[in-house]
Design goal:
369 residues; Rossmann fold; 7-stranded parallel β-sheet; globular
Length: 369
């Protein structure tokens, strides 16, 4: 593929809407790409809300598209296998008319390459449009489906169907923690969005004094309840808690600050301002905790294939303690809160894996060898 040097560099991007981790990683890479290539146009296809990518500003042209199922989950921890298989049977194999329509759209938009954060539909579209395909992942769905086939054997057939799309990507970038290393892939570190405010500025915005212990509770983009909030107020009145996704608006209740998922405070800034993060062991939270060096109390889904590589990385790189998901809702994990708060922050030099990844994407977009 050779780009037209007179045209505005234009990149089609297909992002999985399975949680916010893929969107967070893609957004971090695209922010850096906009810095490296100020004229770039991004044609984004996803069901993640457009507001999540607001930092891309005028570079962004948003197309709402259900481009990836992944798994159907009942909450942040549980997979609904029956609903997953039902939805996959409706989607796969991809309908030729859908692929051709999308291929014509990205071509008409002047796209010179297609980047996919594990959404296989985008890889199929790139092939049909004869555009350079770029895959960014720390796992792919064929690997996940094979790993879950013991619980739902029919998933293996979908793994077999999707595997050629993932292995056929022309530029393959794997981001730590990598689940299945690929021989010809470029390997980069964990990718998190840049911080925007200092820790003290974020704590001031939360009205939290510098000396007050601050715990940030975040469970990612999958809705979940927080039945233990009364325990936080009654058992730990001297500790401040900021809870993401616990309210539609910002609310303060004694030592609690309840935050909406879409709020004025940047999620990575909340991670860095905290003395402890409590959350699900998902990609974006792990990457942000790693960048901030903050201790992490992480809930582990032992039956999920991604957990093994994620836990190995956490144990090696992050001050952390593993927590059982069955102890989340009832607040049993609070018995370990003082031990968790005693863990020390790690200070590490800032290294932007997002910039490294963006440079690889830029080279591919411009058709440079």
């Amino acid at each position: 593929m050779s780009a037209n040097t007179g045209a505005r560099p234009t990149l089609a991007v297909f992002v999985s809407s399975h949680g916010f981790g893929h969107a967070s990683r893609s957004c971090a890479v695209l922010e850096q790409l906009c810095d490296l290539e100020p004229r770039v146009q991004i044609e984004l296809f996803t069901r993640i809300p457009e507001w999540f990518f607001a930092s891309l500003g005028q570079h962004l042209h948003f197309h709402e598209l259900d481009c990836d199922l992944g798994l159907v989950q009942t909450d942040a921890f549980e997979v609904d296998y029956r609903a997953t298989l039902s939805s996959l049977s409706d989607r796969l194999p991809f309908q030729p008319d859908l692929i051709q329509d999308l291929a014509q759209r990205v071509s008409a938009l002047g796209c010179q390459a297609v980047l996919c954060d594990i959404a296989p539909l985008g890889l199929a579209v790139a092939k049909a449009a004869r555009l350079h395909s770029i895959l960014v992942e720390n796992f792919t769905w064929d690997w996940i489906y094979s790993g879950l086939a013991q619980q739902a054997p029919a998933l293996e057939s979908y793994a077999t169907l999707l595997r050629p799309l993932f292995t056929g990507a022309e530029l393959h970038i794997q981001t730590e923690p990598v689940c299945l290393p690929a021989e010809n892939a470029h390997r980069v570190g964990p990718i998190a969005r840049n911080f925007r405010m200092s820790a003290s500025e974020t704590r001031n915005a939360l009205s939290v004094a510098a000396a007050d212990p601050l715990v940030f509770i975040t469970m990612g983009g999958t809705p979940i309840g927080f039945p233990f909030l009364e325990q936080l107020k009654n058992r730990f009145p001297e500790t401040r808690f900021a809870v993401s996704g616990a309210s539609e608006t910002i609310e303060t209740d004694r030592n609690l600050t309840l935050l909406p998922v879409r709020g004025p405070l940047h999620h990575p800034d909340l991670v860095r301002a905290a003395d402890l993060v409590i959350g699900k062991a998902g990609y974006s939270t792990i990457a942000e905790v790693h960048a901030a060096g903050v201790p992490f109390g992480c809930f582990i889904r032992a039956d999920y294939p991604e957990m093994g590589p994620l836990v190995k990385f956490i144990k090696r790189e992050i001050p952390a303690k593993m927590l059982a998901p069955e102890n989340f809702a009832n607040g049993a994990w609070l018995e370990e809160l003082l031990e968790l708060l005693a863990m020390k922050r790690v200070f590490r030099p800032s290294v932007s894996a997002a910039t490294e990844c963006a440079a690889l994407v830029q080279t591919s977009l411009l058709g440079e060898k």
